[in-house]
Amino acid sequence: MSPAPVIIAIDGRSGSGKTTLAIELAARLREHHKVSLFHLEDIYPGWNGLAAGIERYVTTVLSPLRRGESAEWVSWDWERHYDGDARTTRPAEIVLVEGVGAAAAAALPLLDAVIWADSSDDDRRARALARDGDTYEPFWDQWAAQEAEWLAADDVPARADVHVLNRADGTAPDDVLQALQYIPAVAPALLPERAARRGLQLLAERIDAQPEAEQLFAALFGDSANAVWLDSSLDPAGLAPEAAERSRFSILADDGGRFGQAVRHSSGRTRVSTGRATATTDGPFFRWLDGVWGRRALHAPAAYPCEFTLGWLGYLGYELKRETGGNDVAAATPDACLIFAGRAVVLDRAEGTAWLLTLDAPDAGDWLEAARAAVAAAASAPASAPSASTSTSTSTFSARQLAAPRFTARDTEAGYKAKVTEAQREIAEGNTYEVCLTTALTAASPAGRQGMDPWPTYLDLRRRNPAPFASYLRFGELAVASTSPERFLRIAADGRMRAEPIKGTRRRDAEPGADAALREELESSAKDRAENIMIVDLLRNDLSHFAVPGSVAVSRLCAIESYATVHQMVSTIDARLRPGLPRAEAVAACFPAGSMTGAPKVSTMAILDRLEAAPRGVYSGAIGYFSLNGAADLSVAIRTLVISALGDGTADVSLGVGGAVTADSSPQEEYEEVRAKAFGVLSALGAEFPQG
Question: I need a labelling partner for 501 at 20 to 30 A (CA). Which of 81, 101, 328, 596 fits?
């Protein structure tokens, strides 16, 4: 008896290309494994024998293979329409079973993974009849009716681990093989394939040029369904060294090319799309993240100054707090959206250079050629003209916006003040020290060029309110436009960690004297310093869980930084990650940002769930990257618009805003702080804070 094999079923309706997919997948797997292949079409007892064929397959083929025994079975003679020869299928390290019903309910307990292959009805019929037209065509409708009856009672597609759109263009086997590496029951058997993936080679080119970033992004990634621009839109000239460091690099990428992938996670389920295949797994997101990112796979090239060496980019939503001590709350948007970028452009504002990065692959040369041309074109183009929205008046907005969206507030002024008072009651009772209470502004708008088009909307935001952690994220129908000034957490490749919480805000004033007075007022505010210091203490504790003992230090406390629309109070906490500890879990230990929860974190999040009575979604989460060299850099998702196209020509638009409530907070001042924080985003849209 042989050891029990890994058994993978390839199922799908007739004509979906299962046989070809199985043969080609087996050929790839045989580079490192012994593989056995079984075709269900050899065992169906006739054109009306789907149900009987599934029963025969499970009892005489699948059950013995599961035990590591040879399967002795009787074939079907399609010419004589009777039982044919006795045959044997031997077990192997990996067994592929393919055909209609390969993953039927009766087979499921004996399988390690299920692949569902799909194609359009026209493609399936054409493919099936082209292969077996003489014998199959008279029976197509009869067999299709059996398939429909079976699938009506046995929803195999709904429980498949991997879905693939099989267009018979040669891409499906590679996409499926990559997707299978995310399936826990199969992944250990694919160690050679995973090792080959870790043996990636990074190609890097430096170009001495300063391209217009928005034109470069539009040229390279404007047509990509999934793309990310981590945009340091704040000019670092004249900034303090700490602020200049945050504003140095911009990263532009999509999920195209041989290695490109996209992931969405919602309520404990992760879906990874690679090419035309999608793998679905259940389990905590941070555990999944550690599996794909937590180990260093690449080193930065010589003289390359940025920590990003390709990898995962996107956002982590606030509701991932369910994995870090918070309650389980469902959000309308995914709890995480990331792309894996196997190619990207990194702009260095300090040195005036553009770096082209790509993983070595057959398509790398073509992409590098296109990227060089795009950089040259964007570098020679005239600088973008200032947007009409650079005025401080809320009545002006970009001509590209046909109408300013009309926002409504989740909480009225009176309602928000009442929640501030309730938060103070929780503080008085000793349940919390600080409550970062938030609310949301929402609007319904026409989508696309006739209304809320995310791309020009983001360009207006970045010109009106430049920020060190600005970002534009596009994930199909979902877009995120952020002008965040706050770093959540950075982990360098060598293990250095840094958090830079912001607590304390004042609006800017166009009159220099008044503006200076507002800055001084913030700097001398005992209340704001107390808020900031409480969050500093919380983050010192968060970082300490994974830090080298004695390495946690506050290198900057309650410093004032000024941005386009606000002055903010910022502190810096540094630490060093203990060698060998999981980096994704170090991120989880600090998530969500303490500056968006209050302290102590876990009990305060429960209070916030009750007071806010709504999910936050993207807002209050984190935006940034997880690099293949083990580095990560994440901002706090504040000053952030979330735009969800609904497919009917309209879009939902949301903007989260809030502030920290302490025992000596004034409800009126807390409400005014919410208005001040919303101003930078609303004014760029020509919108006003809702009344009432």
Answer: 328
